[in-house]
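Subject: mismatched residue count in predicted assembly?

I count 241 residues in my input, but I want to confirm that the predicted structure covers every chain. Input:
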Amino acid sequence: QSALTQPASVSGSPGQSITISCTGTSSDVGSYNLVSWYQQHPGKAPKLMIYEVSKRPSGVSNRFSGSKSGNTASLTISGLQAEDEADYYCCSYAGSSTFAYVFGTGTKVTVL
Amino acid sequence: EVQLVESGGGLVKPGRSLRLSCTASGFTFGDYAMSWFRQAPGKGLEWVGFIRSKAYGGTTEYAASVKGRFTISRDDSKSIAYLQMNSLKTEDTAVYYCTRRGQRITIFGVVITEAFDIWGQGTMVTVSS
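Triage response: the counts match. Full output below for your records.
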């Protein structure tokens, strides 16, 4: 399984919206509505932000939203805030034949 | 409070073994699949493997990179998941995270979300001579 492709970095000013893409294949992102997104601050454990493409866990700000089109999933952060500065990883279930979860390469979000 | 706490990390020589533990609290441990992930220094996240709940057979799945060397088990009576790591290699050096695989209740029953909703703080494993 190859890693999902994310941009290395995305930046924005406070209040702006940014979108992080996550490109996979028809074997993972394209086949299942089972994409999740994780936020990781330096030295901390990842935190689930989005699951099943677009659902938010309880307690996650509605400024975070997810979507998918074909083999590409996206995470949008609206109303960017300083505390959103972190690394973000997408993850996709990759099937039960050769069971696996595939992660994205990670995106560093910088709040200017 | 729902919590996962890993322990057992440390420095180990190549070829040796190490067992990590993950102690859960704040939820019914036996109802959930538990998974392990790792993150090498300065690198991204990698799924290691998981163990299903007893309701789903308690079976395990592993990433190709660790299959045959790592074994995940669970003790529901103690709310602990284990990661037994054998034949360790320098490339196994990483922070290891224990996680809970998410699920939600619908009118049709339990739906597995294939997302990992609770993470431990991680434990560092260094494989070096």
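Strands of chain A lie at 9-12, 18-23, 35-40, 47-50, 64-69, 72-77, 86-93, 101-103, 107-111. Marking this ticket as 'not a bug'.
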